Amino acid sequence: MLKYIVKRLAMLIIVTMGVTLITFSMMHWAPGDPAELMAISRYGLESVNEQNIARIRVEEGLDAPIFVQYWHWLEHTWRGDLGRSIVTGDLVLDEIRLKIPATFELALAALIISLIIALPAGIISAVKQYSPVDYLTMTGALLGVSIPNFWLGLLLILLFSVTLGWLPVFGYGTFKHMVLPAVTLGAGMAAITTRLIRSSMLGVLRQDYIITARSKGLSEGSIIHNHALKNSLIPVITVIGLQIGHLLEGAVIVEVIFAWPGIGKLLVDSIFARDFFMIQGCVLLFAVIFVIVNLLVDISYIYLDPRIRHKKEY
Hints:
By secondary structure, this protein is mostly helical. It has 13 helices and no strands. Helix 2 (34-43) packs across helix 3 and helix 5 packs across helix 8 (175-205).
């Protein structure tokens, strides 16, 4: 198992290096001159001239060939130096540290909401297959998958904030501020997970060992809890792991709609301001989180399914 984890860590480094190369290249292909933007930020729009721009280009190493710039950026990134924001002049890493708790808080709340909805709904729907409860659950799941995050967010704002006045439209800091963005972000994930749990559970419930357990007179609750649930969760964990990446993507839209002060909103603001170093830092962070989550999902496979562990060892 240790050998497998080391291999996956090596793959993680390779993937991360690829992401850094793509991110760095894209920022240099994007329109706009970083040196000019830095000059405007430092000296003001009225005081910008060719001499100031040329001086900044030399100071920041922007006059070097792109592969040299990439290597220098990698060296600084390895030491935890992601540069300074072109707009505010603050360290990118400090800005990310300030914003990341809000994004993790929102993603965690959305994940919890989705699991609270999906686990019982998916299990009951599978156990009560073709019943009214099953049809109702699947209709709700279909609606949840079909409605885009931004549209659901606007509907929730109209209903609970504008019409009923129960919850704030935007902001951060209290439980009430979190409800609407977390539900908006978690609804789609809950719908997908419900359908997957139902499908996986149905497949497991038809296995021979489940039939044998029933023939021994075990209760249905015991069969589901002790025999069916763990095996049916293996594909579900895969999807949940991949959806954590989609949670971060969805957080970008949801944070903008609800003015949530997280990494997603920081990234969008940076794109509008063409804050190159901040964009690079945010994208790199998202990529690293995504590959780490994938690694943890793979490791959880080995724990949950002994057959996979056996294949990895031999």
